[in-house]
Every structure is written in C-alpha cells, then in structure tokens.
Amino acid sequence: MDEAGTRLLVVSNRLPAVLKKQEGEWRVIPGSGGLVSAMAPVLRDRGGTWVGWTGASNVTSDGQVDSLLTAYSRKAGYTLHPVDLNEEDIKGFYYGFANEVIWPLFHDFQSRCRFEPEYWRVYLDVNRKFAREVAAASTEKDYVWVHDYHLMHVAWMLKEQGLTRRMGFFLHIPFPPVDIFLKLPWRHKILQALMEYDLVGFQTHRDRRNFIQCVKIFDPQAKARGRGPVIHLSSGERTTRLGAFPISIDYSSFSKGASKTEVKEAAAEFHTALKERTIILGIDRLDYSKGIPQRFEAMRSLLTMYPELQGKVSLVQVVVPSREEVAEYKMLKEEIERLVGEINGQFTRPGYIPIHYQYRSLERKELLAYYRASSIALITPLRDGMNLVAKEYCACNSSRNGVLFLSEFAGAAAQLQNWAVLVNPHDVEGVAKSIYQAYAMDPAEKRKRMTKLRESIRKFDIFWWVDSFLQAAFERKLGDFPPMESVTYSGQAQSGV
Question: Which is more confidently placed, 438 or 42?
C-alpha cells in the first residue's frame, strides 16, 4: 500500500484544549492529565489530527470557537477536530456511563456504580457521533488510535457505518478481574466492541490477562496465541492483537526542565519556606481512587508512632480540581479538608504545620520545583492504571536523593517495583513504618534506587511507548510521521483534513 499522505489520528473523549466561557467570551484552556501530557509531544508539529469533545455543549457552529481552535492548532502543531455534544450527551455519557459505571467498576469501586440503562443508550449514541467524526476526518490510509474507556465502541460504530479504518485502542485505566467485570450489565457487548480493534493495548500484563479471562467466560473456545508484549486472541470470526504497553512521560523534557536555573531557585525557596524540613510530596487529581484520605491517616500514624519526627517532616499535598460538579467529588473534597484540619490541629506547633494542603493546579515551573525539592514522593492510589506523577518525580530528581513510595495497586508498580518502596495504601501503619525507614535510609541506598528508577523511565519513555504501540498496531513508528512545516485546521468536518 502506498503510505504517502498517511496521518495519525488520535481520538479521545476530550481535546487537549477545553473551552470555557469567561465574562461572556470563549477561552481555550490547555488540558491536563496523563493522556494530554503523553500524546501532545507525540503529535507536536507532525500534522496529525486530534478528535475529541471541547468540554462545552453545542459550540462547534460558533465562529469564535473556530478561530480559537485554529489558533491553538497552529501553536500546538496538530489539527483539532471537535466533536459536538449536547447537554443530554454530557449528562448520560460523561457524567453517567463514564464516571458512574466504568470508572468506579474498573477501579474496584463497584459499590459506587449506578447501572442506569439510559446511561448505556447515551454512551452508544455518543460513540456513534465520534465514529462519524472519525470517518469525516480520516481516510483509509490513516492510522486511527482511540483512547480510553469512554470510546470503546468507536470501531464497532465505524463497522456499523460500513467503513474500514486501521484502528488501535489503548485503555489507560485498569481492566478488572472477571468477578468484578461480570457485574457490568453490558459486559458481553463491551468485549465484542473491543475485539473490533486491530490492536487493544493495556497498561500491564495483568490487565491483559483479565481481559482474556473475561472473553473466555463468554466464548470458551476463544484462544490466545503467542508470548511477550503482543499476543493474538481469537474469538468467533475475530482475531485481535492484545498488547501490554506501560505508558510513560517525556523524560528528557522533565529532566532538563528540572535542571533550569529558575526551577532550582524556586525549589530552594520552597525548601526554605518549610524551614529545611524533610518534604513528603503528594500530587493527585481529586478522585476517590487516589487514596488521599488514607495517605493523611498514614501521616497521622507516622507522627503518633514516631513523635521524634514531629517538626522534622511535612507532607505537602496538592489536589488538582476535577469533576467538581459531581456530588461525590464534593463530598471527597470536604472529607480531605476535614482530615487536614483535624491532623493539623492535633500536631501543629509554633513554626510547624504537618500537612500543607493546596487545592489548585500548579504551573509547570512550580510543579518541577516541588518535585525537585521533595525528599519523598508518596504515590499511594487505591487503584491506578499507571500513575505518571511517579515517573515525573523520578525524572526531576537529578540529585538522586529522593525516595519513591508507590502503591502496589498502581500500574507503575509492575515496572518500578524493584527500586521503589512498595506499600499497601490500606495499611496506614505499614505506610508510616516505611516512611520512617526511608527517613533514615542510607544516602548511598537512595542514590542507587533513584538511579535505577531514572534509567528505567529514561529508557522506556513516552516515545518508546508510542513506537511500541504503532509498531504492534500498524508496523509503523513515530519516525514514519515526520515533522511538517505547517499545519492547518478546518472547523468543518472534511475528509482527509
């Protein structure tokens, strides 16, 4: 096949820039989160296309929005192709099926699920809308890479339209074991939809194994063949490749950024402001899967069990606002703030506060400075697909004197387990004991561990991840999509744009 003109299309729930109305005018706000930080460097200046929702309802006919997206596309180096969703779509698809069904179920919080039939119907309708936009924005030559649990049915919907595309899918969150997945009322249809992709990628081998076991429940004749990162799964008339591809970060960008003079100075100021204490750092999006209340209880246990550390260690916890419209997240925020006040009230002394809590997003320079200044990173989710904060912290720890604490239930543990300190976030006293041991850890041991962590993350960075996926899906690498001199954007859906 002639590959001339072949482009990479990334499809995700949201575009890497969201629209918000401020004082009656639309504004483009750069997106955040693991997918944006992972994929933006990949598409930058390569003339690819990113298909997704703008974060607002009924806006694609607005001329001002077209202009804003055009300007952002030129700056970003890739085309933004918006999918328009209405209020009903957003309520049933995003807040409903995605956040009240799949997210809690796949993170082992099935008691938080609401299996509303209407959510399922809207989810299918929205996936059909995305499929139409993918069809309009692509040709048969292009490679379509669909991301995450919101859009598991896009390949199925394209097939429904009688269209053929080369398609891969990557699941950024965990895939649950059989006993949990079987609670999903639409379990078989989800499996059938995922099998329509040429390649389905997971964060870990465990996630892939869970998927295979689920397929075999409904098709005892299903067979998995092969070994290693990519295998073949046959079920009925379909054979799909399944791969384990742990997502990563742009290691070089974080490492070099943390070495800049302005970041070093900001880190020094941050450390001085906390009176040269040992800084324990937690950075998380507001979510019940992140284990923030359990982390605070571990800090309480630390200061209770080892009173000699009072005045010597402080936890700096940054919580990035997320899904603030959802009542459950508001309740979580209230619980977090109650615990902060309670623990600080218990241990605060003149000149000493044990927990420094911030509910906001950090600018990049500030984020890198926090990473650089912290002696311990406490990454303790109750369940996580990967967790890129753990990798960012290591990349920024150029002095190699930091210690990474990592939950056993984070996907990153599979890659980093030999050199991180693995903990069970439910065992708050166990976490406290481990922190105490790390506080007294020999500096040579710290350097050895951090050196190994940094080497692993540097070797298996975001570009390795993309190359691995593209090679498995399409026998292509990132270098097959060379940088382009210019990129254009069209607010209207056009084939081949």
Answer: 438
